[in-house]
Amino acid sequence: MATLVFVHGWSVTDTSTYGSLPKALADRAAQAGAPLRIVDIRLSEYVTFDDRVTMEDIVRAFDHALRGLQLADGTFDCITHSTGGTVAVAWLNAQRDRPALYAPIRLRHLVMLASAHFGSALAALGKGVVGRLKAWFNGVEPGQRILDWLEHGSPESLAQALNVIHGPDYATHGTYLFDLIGDRPDRKLYDYVNSYTGEDGSDGVIRLAAANLNARHVVLTQDRASAALSMTTTKAPRTAFKLLAGLSHSGSDHGIMAAEPPSPLTVETIMRCFAVESPAAYTALCDAFAAENARRDRDKVEVETKLLTTRTHIHDPHSLLIFRLLDDRGEPLPQAHFLLTAGPTASPNDLPPGFSTDRQANARSPATVTLFLNHALLAGDGPVVDPRDAGKVLREAQPSHAPYGVRIDPVDPTGLIGHVVASTLPRDDLLAVLGAHETTILDVVLSRRVAEGVFRFTTDLTPANFRTPVAGADLP
Questions:
Q1: Topology of 3-214+236-303 in CATH?
Q2: Which of 111, 118, 326, 419: disulfide with 446, CB 3.0–4.6 Å?
Q3: Strands 301-306 vs 417-418: parallel, antiparallel or unpaired
């Protein structure tokens, strides 16, 4: 490589955010020899803390700044942190979809550290009083439009994710994407007012599943003549994804970018990414990362020692399930009840205890809800042994409660306009489309029932009141 661009995350106002990672990588590349040579490093300075700035604005400005680099070979490599990853992916998508408007520059390696592809649970809080106070103390605005984008289930983040899921495989065109994220919060940075900063299944800011582009789009569609929901699934092109054990989102001790000195694990993993120069090598690294993640998932107990107390954390793999409820005319259904079911009787009462960690409805799209699910408990898990004492079991073996399904209970199935109860077929086990450390976008489309009483003709010429119409039969 020659030119390496760094792109920071939300609410950054100083290039010190990159720490000494740029220099550490330049030094490490020099040791590796000519194939990994870094000639030029550029640190991004972009604004997220102006309430008027949108993601599209940042992408346009990013493209303009890239043109100004006057790249000799028309290529560059990029390392992003947090929201920076969403900026880079948005630029790639815009460059592909609107080539006349964006620079014909090729991004070869995009290494995304703790990227917020599917947002952050903290974004909803960042828009509130705490976020505004923090921004006020820093002398900036919260960055309302970017926080809107970053909230789980935002229309903008889902549109970008669906563009990736249904889009081409960038690796076949010589652009290689890598998602790297620490596997746990930094306990020293835990905020007792906000439990999300210590949430298992996240790096303290971004949930592991939200940083992974290996996502699925599942559509459950109700047939007019039936209560059954039929399932179709689309899987995103494969992206290299790796958990960096012991690292967190930020912090000078364990931060994936801000640690001082930089973590050798971060540096060496980035160098492995930069060494990829062919689709075959990319596939091999994807396989290697998957095997390393599996080993990490088997060694998932963290022992936290603080003063005279000791706590254990079981870092189970989690899944994000973002569901959207609408009918076949595109009408959102925020009042409908979305129920997960389990077992041969498809009962909500048979779901495993503790399977759901969190639930967030999107503030601007209340019919879009994000569930944070413990994948290990859904899939079934063996006994978890205390690493300090092989004879002590921290959690007994957990059986799977599969098959899992979905049932939708409309609020009012009667009246002129309505919907009927719908559920998945027994053959469609939801567990099959929920990946460990992955996100599934689930669109549930109900058939909209319109009664003939909405519009009638009458032959009775005597004035009559139809304030209380008779619904009658459903329209075909």
A1: Rossmann fold (3.40.50)
A2: 419
A3: unpaired
